[in-house]
Design goal:
Layout: H1 4-7, E1 16-20, H2 23-32, E2 36-41, E3 48-55, E4 58-64, H3 69-83, E5 87-96, H4 99-102, E6 106-115, E7 128-130, H5 134-144, E8 148-156, H6 164-172, E9 175-179, H7 182-192, E10 195-205, H8 216-221, H9 224-235
Parallel strand pairs: 1-4, 1-5, 5-10, 6-8, 8-9
Antiparallel strand pairs: 2-3, 3-4, 5-9, 6-7
Length: 236
């Protein structure tokens, strides 16, 4: 079975795709650019539009992807089929597992702990998966003079099971943040020969005596991440 069974013939409209999880960022993009709807990803939950826009003469795909490794990974596969994009820029929020390391900095993941199911269908079993474009993302952050920290992150499907013991185990292995998509999306990209450029902003804090989520809305929706993603899109 291939996406052709659901979508039809493969197309090529652009090489680069920016992915967001934020409906606020979608509205900002609609205000900033003349977005052209060129397709949609359909599901029983409803259809999500795929947009194309011009960025300094370069066609870029823009899409609001689903939350969770399985859905986000499948979105990448279908976006490639519908648009031809092979370079994906993904950004979103994460929970901090090391407040001292992540406060006031973006997180550029170098490896992701595979605590989800999607990656095991696309990569051989292992605890961690390498994030192949981490150095490339860091070089762009350096050029933009943005503060960041590189390190391992933990990808999990079950955020209500981020227990104290699980947090402690991941911290012991050097994980500085936890999120829900990266290891699955990276495995899909590796399998299909796509490039993934990922960065995160920590919002909630698990590295505290009592769980804190005051920064989660900002980490999800503030527009600084969009500006960085657009810069990455120009430079890859």
């Amino acid at each position: 079975m291939t996406p052709e069974s659901f979508i039809g013939s493969k197309r090529h409209l652009a090489d680069v795709c920016i992915l967001t999880f934020s409906h606020v960022i979608v509205k900002e993009m609609q205000a900033r650019y003349a977005l052209r709807e060129i397709g949609e990803i359909r599901s029983v939950n409803g259809n999500r539009p795929i947009y194309l826009f011009d960025l300094d003469g370069k066609p870029i795909v823009f899409f609001m992807t689903s939350v969770g490794a399985t859905c986000a990974g499948t979105d990448v596969i279908e976006l490639n089929w519908i648009t031809g994009a092979t370079q994906f820029i993904l950004f979103g929020s994460a929970g901090s597992l090391n407040r001292a390391a992540t406060t006031g900095k973006y997180v550029i993941p170098t490896e992701a702990y595979r605590d989800e199911g999607m990656s095991y269908h696309y990569a051989p079993p292992a605890d961690y998966i390498q994030i192949g474009k981490a150095d490339n993302v860091a070089a762009i952050f350096d050029a933009l003079r943005l503060p960041y920290v590189k390190g391992r992150v933990w990808t999990t499907d079950a955020f209500y099971r981020e227990t104290k013991d699980q947090v402690a185990a991941r911290q012991k292995e050097g994980c500085i943040a936890v999120e829900m998509e990266l290891s699955g999306v990276q495995a899909v990209c590796d399998f299909h020969g796509f490039e993934l450029y990922d960065f995160l902003v920590t919002g909630d804090v698990l590295d505290a005596p009592v769980y804190e989520n005051d920064g989660l809305h900002s980490a999800n929706h503030d527009l600084d991440k969009l500006d960085i993603a657009l810069e990455i899109a120009k430079r890859i």
